[in-house]
Design a protein that fits this description.
The protein has 172 residues and is an alpha+beta fold. The protein has 2 domains: 62 residues, no CATH class; 94 residues, Endonuclease, Chain A. Helices cover 49% and strands 15% of the residues. It has 8 helices and 4 strands, in the order αααααβββαβαα. The chain has a 4-stranded mixed β-sheet with strand order 1-2-3-4, sandwiched between helices. α6 links the parallel β3 and β4. α5 packs across α8. It is elongated. The N and C termini lie far apart (81 Å).
Length: 172
């Protein structure tokens, strides 16, 4: 086929409702994305635009990734999953990714015992700024009546059962 014929066929195919850019939902999504792109306020950086949320809510896959405030949820790490499985197998009640004192989001919070559990990765939590941040969090949480327990990645990978055993022994 010659080039003009291909262009004519393509332009016919893109007429009316067949053209995605002419559909209301697509145009609305593009508009909302562009509006949110240029807002420099820090609160907008972690949010998903309204149009994108609407589009994502139509697909079952994305329902698991958007929280109630319109932010993309943090996915669980392998060490968090190991600790969670161990807590479930022992029947210990917990809350996952709990925000406390408007300063930190803890990996696990045991409300019955007032215990906070962090699962720290060996690489990121050995950096100097992370060490200082973790120490500050520990201090503030203990001052407010929480017991803070931190497990390192190598400890969890070696034996998550042993980590929870130490926790249970310290409580009883």
């Amino acid at each position: 086929m010659k080039r003009p014929e291909i262009r004519k066929i393509h332009s016919i195919r893109m007429m009316g409702d067949k053209n995605p850019s002419k559909r209301f939902e697509v145009r609305n999504k593009i508009r909302n994305t562009m509006i949110n792109k240029y807002k420099s306020d820090a609160t907008y950086r972690n949010r998903v635009s309204i149009g994108t949320k609407r589009a994502m809510s139509r697909t079952e896959v994305w329902k698991n990734y958007i929280d109630s405030r319109g932010r993309i949820k943090k996915t669980d790490t392998s060490i968090e999953l190991k600790i969670e499985n161990e807590l479930k197998s022992r029947g210990i009640r917990y809350e996952k990714q709990k925000s406390l004192l408007n300063m930190t989001i803890v990996d696990f919070y045991l409300p019955f015992y007032n215990i906070v559990i962090y699962t720290d990765g060996d690489y990121w939590h050995n950096k100097s700024d992370a060490i200082e941040k973790d120490a500050k969090q520990n201090k503030v949480l203990t001052e407010n009546g929480y017991k803070v327990v931190r497990y390192w990645e190598h400890e969890i990978n070696k034996s998550s059962e042993e980590c929870i055993n130490r926790l249970v022994c310290s409580v009883s």
